[in-house]
Write a structure and sequence with these properties.
five-stranded mixed sheet, globular
Length: about 475
């Protein structure tokens, strides 16, 4: 049975039964509620002017995250508290600090900055400049005056921190738990439908009955199909509430990541394997994107420039695919059949990603090249895994994004390295072999010639940095 979307908008309970399922939270706030403090800057989740905070129950407390309302579909807030700038009332410590430090210039971006900082305000612990800057990396100020905003953040984020939302936490939790006691959301309005199962079994049942459905996680890509391409999406099925697919856990000799785990939820476990994962995911998107975007969605999307696939392929990751009650395992490198074409059968979905823990002699590096450091789509991304014993390469797995229609291993280059001393001469042979592995893409992001030269140089760079097993660093421009 279908039911309305129910959520808290600030302190007010809302039951929405008429809005189209693909209506964005931004448009809902501005056009249907008259809350125009939240702004549209880019309509693609890049500039942060649309940022609002969302609170939801987690481990007996409220967990706050900043999201891009411009690409966040309204049904995704079911059972949660939406906090736009108006809900702060004008006298929140963050707002007072922004005034005191002259942090608002033209003012267009200011609500987004405040709401990003509001999510950080409710994150426990002390927040140094790095944490503040990471939090604000997804908020652009076109007046270029970041210094007073940072001053305001430092002022307001000191300890102790407590506001009226903290004081109301117990009551808010109770109200949200009552809402979440209702059946899983199955919402239909204006010719569209949005289904949000709460278990993998429910998800499998829905997709078996509706193999034509569009599966979404954080909708950080699909949202643009609506805002930029004006696509009609008659049936959306969301993984965002599938609790038993949101895990990240160690199981024997492997790391298992549920396909509904967000980037933010997986970063600690991946970084424990290789510090470069933290650096890579930091550049993949803003805090707003990482809070809702999923690794499973990045994989299933099938883009040749998705950032998580090359390192996962280089590390030998496999996927658990599911259709109904049937599961099958498939190596990630075999999942891609062509440009945005995958091995998924109708009604089948990615349930989990499995990653064998690396051996002690594994040396690993990731390098991303993009036109800007933060939050830009890769021109070339290379991931390099070398198993080196007694100074020789016993196994090499090199994977690239942006070089072909799919994320792809460099088999010829790997062959040139295998059995060879881990020395520059072997690396240069592998660099030459990359020309046999790829006839690179040639598009507005980079020419084919640039991509091939860059890929070769990234391989050399990885070798230079891995001498002696040093931890790697990710650089923005070569």
């Amino acid at each position: 049975m279908t039911r309305p979307i129910r959520f808290l908008l600030g302190d007010a309970e809302v039951s929405e039964a008429a809005a189209p399922p693909t209506l964005t939270l931004l448009r809902y706030l501005r056009e249907r509620r008259g809350l125009v403090g939240t702004k549209e800057g880019c309509a693609e989740g890049d500039c942060g002017a649309c940022t609002v905070a969302i609170a939801e129950p987690r481990d007996g407390r409220l967990a706050y995250k900043a999201v891009n309302a411009c690409i966040h579909f309204l049904p995704a807030v079911d059972g949660k508290q939406v906090i736009p700038i108006e809900s702060l009332g004008g006298d929140h410590p963050l707002q007072r600090a922004m005034v005191a430090h002259h942090g608002s210039q033209c003012g267009f971006c200011t609500p987004g900055f405040v709401m990003s900082l509001f999510a950080l305000y409710h994150r426990p612990g002390r927040h140094d400049d790095k944490a503040i800057k990471d939090m604000l990396a997804g908020n652009l100020c076109r007046c270029t005056g970041y210094r007073p905003i940072l001053d305001a953040a430092r002022d307001a984020l000191g300890e102790p921190r407590r506001d009226r939302f903290d004081e109301a936490e117990t009551a808010t939790l109770a109200r949200l738990e009552t809402m979440r006691g209702e059946p899983p959301l199955d919402y239909a309005a204006a010719g569209g439908r949005y289904v949000a199962p709460r278990s993998a079994d429910q998800l499998a049942t829905v997709l078996a009955a509706h193999p034509e459905a569009r599966l979404v996680g954080g909708a950080t890509d699909v949202g643009l199909w609506v805002t930029k391409e004006m696509r009609e999406l008659p049936l959306l099925v969301s993984t965002a509430e599938v609790e038993d697919m949101a895990y990240v856990r160690l199981a024997g000799d492997r790391l298992e990541i549920g396909a509904a785990a967000t980037y933010a939820g997986a970063v600690e476990a991946l970084s424990a394997l290789h510090v470069d994962w933290r650096l890579l995911l930091r550049r993949l998107g803003s805090e707003q994107i990482r809070a809702v975007g999923t690794i499973g969605g990045n994989i299933a999307n099938g883009s040749p420039i998705g950032d998580t696939m090359p390192p996962l392929i280089a590390l030998g990751a496999s996927l658990m695919l599911r259709k109904g009650g049937t599961r099958r395992s498939l190596a990630l490198e075999d999942f891609y059949l062509g440009y945005r074409k995958t091995a998924l059968a109708p009604g089948e979905f990615v349930e989990a990603i499995h990653l064998t823990l690396p051996p002690a002699h594994r040396r690993f590096a990731v390098h991303k090249l993009a036109k800007r450091f933060d939050q830009d789509i890769s021109s070339v991304l290379g991931a390099f895994a070398f198993d080196v014993e007694s100074g020789r390469v016993v196994r090499a797995r090199l994977a690239f994004g942006g070089m072909a229609a799919v994320p792809k291993r460099a088999i010829a280059a790997e062959t040139a390295l295998t059995g060879q001393p881990f020395e520059r001469a072997a690396i240069e042979q592998a660099m030459e072999a990359l020309g046999r592995d790829f006839q690179p893409l040639d598009d507005h992001r980079a020419s084919a010639a640039y991509r091939l030269t860059a890929a070769r140089n990234l391989l050399l760079k990885a070798w230079l940095e891995l001498q002696g097993g040093d931890s790697i660093r990710i650089h923005g421009h070569g």
